[in-house]
Structures are given as C-alpha cells and as structure tokens.
Hints:
- The chain is mainly α.
- The chain has helices at residues 8-15, 25-34, 38-55, 58-70, 86-98, 100-109, 113-119, 124-144, 152-174, 182-187, 193-213, 217-224, 227-232.
- The protein has one domain.
Amino acid sequence: MLGSQSGFVTRVIQKAPNANPLHCMIHRQAFASKTLPSELQDTLNTIIKTLNFVKDSALNTRLFKRLCQDMDAAHETLLFHTAVRWLSKGNVVQRVFELREEISLFLRIQNKQDLLTAWSADSFEIWLAYIVDIFRQLNTLNLELQGKGSLIIDFVDKIKAFIRKMENWRRKIRIGNLAMLEKVSEIVEECDAATQNLITQYFEALEGEFKRYFPDIQSLTSRLLTPADREGGSVP
Length: 236
C-alpha cells in the first residue's frame, strides 16, 4: 500500500501530484497508545499473567466465580485479554480493578507466590488504577475517531484537543489535583511528590508518543483547509 516504488500511494501521486497521503488516524492513535513506561508495562504484564492463571484453567475459573459469589462481588468473572484489540484492554483492566480484592484473596488461597509478590507491592494498586484511568481516556478518544461521516479535519481537531488535555493534566498533577484520574483518587486522596513526578513523566511520555506518531498534526489543518476556510476562521 505505501511502497515508495510501486505502492498504491506512489501510483496515486504519479497521477495526482497534489494529493495528500495520510496514514490512518485511528491506527496512529492505537500505536501511540501502546507504548508504556517500564513500571506500567510491568503492572500490565502482571495483570495479564493473573488473567491467564485464572482463565486458562476451568477449575480456577469455577473456583474464582464461587469466591466472587461468596463475597457478593460486583462481577463473577474476569474478561479475556485480546492483544489485537486495543479497546479490550480498557475493559479488562477495569474489571480487574473492580475485582482486585477478590483476585488478591484468590491468589493467596491458591498460594500463587510469584503473582502475590507483584500484587503486594506498594505501588501496584496505584499503577493499576492509573492504567484504568488512562486507558479509559484513550478508549474514549479511539471511539470518537470512529463512525461514519467524520472528516480528516475532525480527526485532527480531536487529536490536538487530546494533546492539549494531557498538557493541562500535567499542570494539575504538579499542584496535587488528581480529579482527572478517577480511580487513582479512589486509592489515595493525595499522592506523594515522588508519585506525582512519576505520573507527570508518564503523561509526558504519552504526549511524546502522540507527537511522534502525529508529527504533521500542526500542518494538517492548513494543508486540508481552503484559503476561504482559513480566512473565515471556521476551524481553530
């Protein structure tokens, strides 16, 4: 499709030199979202290993369901993690967060020491909550980019708005405002300075990934609008 010698885009440009080839916005957003700092990736790997331990065995699945029933949990089962579907990760970690007490008890009953060690770490619950919060935001953006009738200029506006959101979130976190991180706020009322710095760094890393995958984001608006549109100020 994108081959520089005989790909589809090359052939189109040969016939229409003024054409503007653009890589799919939804794919780029998914690629930018997949890059996680080492601490968050370790937490996500632990979540996936825990899911595999519970879900790969029919016996463990039944025992965990019975445990959830006995504890009057909000849910009775965990969701499968599907690597090829980004949106599934948000739903998976949300369910894990809601059943975190049941999962921890189940691992203790099953004497799964390697996973228990990871789950017992001081920072694990905070990073689990952070992953839930940031995946929720990324999934919301992903869904906003889907659907019929959307134009590229709409995609550009939404990506630019999300980058500005991350800049605003970093400013708020520096002064101790965690309102945008709903699940983190449930865990702690106030983060210590070290945790605030790490969360700020994570937002900076995510913002950097978006800018890396959308290097043309600032120029796309001017390229896609006609002179009349720009003079009319129809798009910020």
